[in-house]
Amino acid sequence: MIRFLKCCVLILFFSVNAFAKSATVHITIKNYKGSIFIHDSGWSYDLTKNKVNVLQLDAHQSASYTINIDQPTNLIFYLSNKFFNYSLFLSPGDELFLTADFARKDHQVTVTGKGSNNNQPEIFALTNFNWIPFKGDKDPDRVLDAIKKQYFLNKSILANYIKVNKPSAAFVKNATNNLKYFVPDNYYEFSHNNNFFRPKDQLTKWKKIQDSIFSTVKLSNNEALTAYNYTQLMCSVVLREMEAMWLESKKTEPALTKDRWSQLNLKHETKTNRVMQPGGFDQIVLDRYFSGKAAEYAYAQTIKLKLVRADYPAVVSMYNHFKKEYPHSAYVKGFSPAIAELVKKQQQTFNKETVFAKNNGTQLNTLKDVLALTKGKVALVDMWGTWCSPCRSEIEKNAAKLEANFKGKNVNFIYIANDDINREKEWKKAIAYFEIEGIHILANPKLTKDIMGNVKASSYPTYILIKKDGTYRQTTSQQPVNVQAMIKEIETANL
User: Fold this and answer.
1) Which of 70, 93, 125 delimits the end of a domain?
2) How many helices (H) and strands (E) does the chain have?
3) Residue ranges making up the domain that contains 468
4) What confidence tens digit (pLDDT) does each residue in 200-218 have?
5) DSSP codes, 5-27
6) Is 269 exposed, middle or buried (0-12, 13-18, 19+ CB in 10 A)?
7) What are the percentages of helix, strand and coil residues in the chain, rounded to 5?
8) What is the pTM of this model?
9) For residue range 94-119, what is the model confidence (pLDDT) as tens digits?
10) Helix 312-325 and helix 280-289, axial crossing angle in degrees, nearest 10
């Protein structure tokens, strides 16, 4: 079944103009008890997380949903307790009647009404590439052959679907663009996931094939923004190129300097000062590869991804740049309320329960030094970094809950920021923004190495439980944290 969700965000595209028309879907799900989740068009312009509409089936096991659109788009719905999803291609004025029966083989899906020629179940014979059998391949030939084989199979399926169902011109354009980007998207995503930690000298052949594939398509394509594979490729390129730029910047200098950036072969060298700002890497990548409507879309989706990763300084910085570049974009109006709240929260000062170790803890060199700060008490140590998106997300979701649960119970929370030694200002801003209580340490490299070595950890965040007697271990619950499980671990250590 066609992929519909990924690390970047739900890929839906909607007009930047005011909504003028609508399309309606009437859904009947027989022999099913539960809810229907629908990703609405408003989600595209809303910077808040998890914008999902929930439909409850009535006594006849039916529900209706109307979406406001002024050009063709995709609407995805799925069921709350079944592995079942359906992606509808909707045009203004469409009215579809979709029926499924979970007591029947293959759910017996039928689609009728205006626009049904674009949404027959046969279209789901189109499948994406299954990369699992090729994981670990050092040579690209085998995986490339498999991707191409799937491409030609999908091409045949699509041609037959068009012949039999006679879909609209808009559907054909969208499906054709989606097929066009099938090979680039799947090869790029697989090659970068598969080869992330390999030396550059082993990647020459992979890169040569990638360049050859990319020469056949436009990376910035304003006409393909409703095509799933294209928008997935956009998301992957921004993420991977940003990662590569960040890794390159870390090779010779731990601190970011303008002199270092002048050596990075940036296309926009006159704007190297931008990389010193939050979201600077992303902005350079976006400006380098995209223009027009494609850039507008890519910017908006990257801002949303930054929000999901709790990188709020980057969200605000990128939004301000985006607003100047695209002042009339519907995303500007849609994002504005959430941005205002973020800006307000960035003005917060430290929580009264926030404590900084002497000299910010920069002179602590060993885990033994940290243990001395919490002698006789149970402590939870959070090894994190302001640059680490999982770290920020976990702190935002769980820190206040854990601290509140153990308020007044002789338990310390110690937050040790790693690889942030030259980012004291950003470090303290993050602590204030997330309202993190507890003891805070800005680790020097010696301290980081000693702690991670002693607990045999290599990634962030890492959580360490210190008992009253000074013994320590990694917690059983690591990222993503199960808060209740973590609470039980701490309670047991506090007995």
Assistant:
1) 125
2) 17, 14
3) 354-493
4) 778 889 999 999 999 999 9
5) --SS-------SSPP-EEEEEEE
6) exposed
7) 50, 15, 35
8) 0.81
9) 999 999 998 888 888 999 999 999 99
10) 40
